[in-house]
Amino acid sequence: MNKNLYLGIDLGGSEVKIAIVNGSGRIIEKTTFPNSYLSTPQDVVRRIIEKTEQMANLKNVCATGVGVAGDIDQENGIVRFSPNLKGWRNVKFKEMLERHLPKPVKIENDANAAALGALWLDGKGIFRNIVCVTLGTGIGGGLVFDCKIYHGATGTAGEIGHIPIDPYGRRCKCGSRGCVEAYLGANYLSEDAEKNRALMSSPVIQRLLKDGELRITPKIISEAANLGDKEARKIWDMYGERLGIILAGIVNLLNPELIVLAGGVSQAGSLILDPLKKTVEERAFKTPVKNCKIIISKHNKILGMVGAAFLNK
Ligand SMILES: [Zn+2]
């Protein structure tokens, strides 16, 4: 059999997901293992080798791609820094993997890899210019122009989460202030919700908390909103509006054909999408808005793996 399959690895702080994918993006085989903030690069490489060696289709793989959260030098395959992995600084990850996995090996920022996954899985080959926004603990972004990831001068392009929306706003982990991530990152969202007295005293929230939930997670806020809680709905209206302001700017700046929302928080679905679309329509130029589809990914859990696999396609 010809070597016509691709290996894709999504390296997250709590889990590593591995898939062998065919040329149309269909997952042929997959596996996973838990990861931790304290894993060293050597630990992770050893586990990846162990796991991939057990995959029946590895012999038919012609290339390997890896998505890692953080600042990546994709040209040289170096993880400059990863916020999810302690002590990972200037790790020559490509070199480490090349000794054991099918070559060529490419290393990419995880949100960029997800954007490539969204291009093929959600865009189905119809679109060429897309923006992918991942909504989770962090707010990530990936830009694809003419079916290729746009990296900018040093590989940093697409950091949508660190676009400022408030000139005198709260401090962000990146060192700046007022970044969109400092309002819409999942932990900030939960902290703000817990300080919101009207929300916390709502009977719906009280009941959900009594059911054993300890924290006000984005999932609880969407459950409450779907049960008709007005305060919970207000939180999503704010979320959609703030993200919509950024995306209106992006529509005017880049004129994309498709914007795909992915990541755990995107599962709030129309609670985010409705106020977001309204804001983008109000704030961006009419023609680019009319010609830009905004959707929530239907392939959320596999975008990272498939995108990583397609880095070599
Ligand atoms: Zn920031």
Q: Your description of this structure?
A:
- The protein is 37% helix and 22% strand.
- The protein has helices spanning 41-53, 93-98, 110-121, 181-184, 186-195, 197-200, 203-210, 218-226, 230-254, 270-283, 286-290, 303-309; strands at residues 5-11, 15-21, 27-34, 61-68, 71-73, 78-81, 89-91, 105-109, 130-135, 139-145, 148-149, 258-262, 293-296.
- The protein is built from twelve helices and 13 strands.
- With 313 residues, it is of the alpha/beta class.
- Strand 10 (139-145) and strand 11 form a beta hairpin.
- It is globular.
- The chain starts with a strand and ends with a helix.
- Helix 3 (110-121) packs across helix 12 (303-309) and helix 8 (218-226) crosses helix 9 (230-254).
- The strands form three sheets. It has a five-stranded mixed sheet with strand order 3-2-1-4-8.
- Bound molecules: zinc ion.
